């Protein structure tokens, strides 16, 4: 069970990192709010085709849990994505990456406050090592750069988005008894509906952009892989080992993003990349070894 969860979560983080790299290709090829809205539409349509036979049988459960399912989609699918898109227009990618690395701590805190779920010393140490590895990556191994960070409204927006996704992660414990296809259909449909107003505002303010061929390719990738396959894998990973333990894997995203940039964008590999990868993986390993029973 653990091995399956680890594979699913590592695969999820790789796809989410790929989404970040795809975002670089999206610039000038498709507008961000349109991309965010259409990617959830693609995921929802694919899931509707997959779940059409189960939908009728499970509709009563979906209807009874509609507020929860809608909230999960609004927070996890729309809230975090929109927050990230808006935040990086005000703050730096370095700031956003470091702030995203705090998500496991938010999950720890929420689980303790609301469910009295304890965190071991090993998990805290593992978290610290892991987040240090993220900082090594985004500062290029020069910790003095931390003193140059300029905090602004974008950082507050990013923290808000992180709190939304942390809440989504913790709230997955209340997932109703639905097949994964119908559950993900509900939350991705919610993601589409709650993203739609932002796309409308983007168009109304003349900031929308018709996708270029590259934009369509980015959209197809984002809709099928990070928005569908990765989300399903993440939900299953949380189900198998819990939110506290699964959340720590999110710190792999900036590491994998850097490695994918090296492979796909021709960026240079540096020794600090190797150090950071070892630290993040080592932190996750230590946290897993020291996780309390049932965490």
TrEMBL record:
Transmembrane segments: 38-55, 67-88, 94-114, 121-141, 153-171, 183-204, 216-234, 246-265
GO cellular component assignments: plasma membrane
Entry keyword set: Cell membrane, Membrane, Transmembrane, Transmembrane helix
SUPFAM superfamilies: Multidrug resistance efflux transporter EmrE
Main location: membrane
Subcellular location: Cell membrane
InterPro entries from the UniProt entry: AA-Vitamin_Transporters, EamA_dom, EmrE-like
Chain ranges of the EamA domain: 4-138, 153-286
Topological relation to the membrane, as annotated: Multi-pass membrane protein
Superkingdom, taxonomy of origin: Bacteria
Protein's UniProt name: DMT family transporter
Organism from which the protein derives: Tianweitania sediminis
Lineage: Bacteria, Pseudomonadati, Pseudomonadota, Alphaproteobacteria, Hyphomicrobiales
């Amino acid at each position: 069970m653990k091995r399956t969860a680890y594979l699913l979560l590592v695969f999820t983080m790789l796809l989410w990192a790929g989404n970040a790299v795809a975002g670089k290709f999206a610039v000038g090829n498709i507008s961000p709010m349109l991309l965010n809205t259409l990617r959830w539409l693609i995921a929802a349509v694919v899931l509707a085709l997959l779940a059409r036979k189960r939908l009728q049988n499970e509709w009563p459960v979906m209807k009874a849990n509609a507020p929860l399912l809608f909230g999960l989609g609004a927070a996890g699918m729309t809230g975090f994505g929109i927050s990230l898109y808006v935040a990086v227009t005000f703050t730096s990618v370095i700031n956003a990456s470091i702030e995203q690395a705090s998500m496991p701590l938010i999950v720890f805190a929420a689980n303790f406050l609301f469910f009295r779920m304890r965190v071991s010393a090993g998990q805290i140490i593992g978290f610290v090592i892991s987040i240090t590895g993220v900082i090594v990556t985004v500062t290029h191994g020069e910790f003095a750069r931390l003193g140059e960070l300029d905090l602004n409204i974008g950082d507050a927006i990013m923290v808000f988005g992180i709190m939304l996704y942390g809440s989504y992660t913790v709230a997955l414990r209340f997932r109703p008894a639905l097949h994964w296809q119908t559950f993900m259909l509900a939350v991705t449909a919610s993601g589409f509906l709650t993203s739609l107003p932002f796309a409308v505002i983007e168009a109304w303010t003349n900031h929308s952009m018709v996708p270029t061929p590259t934009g369509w390719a980015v959209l197809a990738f984002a809709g099928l892989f990070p928005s569908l396959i990765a989300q399903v894998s993440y939900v299953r990973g949380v189900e198998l080992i819990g939110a506290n333990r699964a959340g720590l894997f999110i710190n792999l995203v900036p590491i994998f993003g850097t490695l994918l940039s090296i492979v796909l964008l021709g960026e240079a590999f540096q020794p600090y990349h190797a150090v950071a990868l070892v630290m993040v993986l080592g932190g996750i390993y230590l946290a897993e070894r020291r996780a309390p029973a049932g965490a």
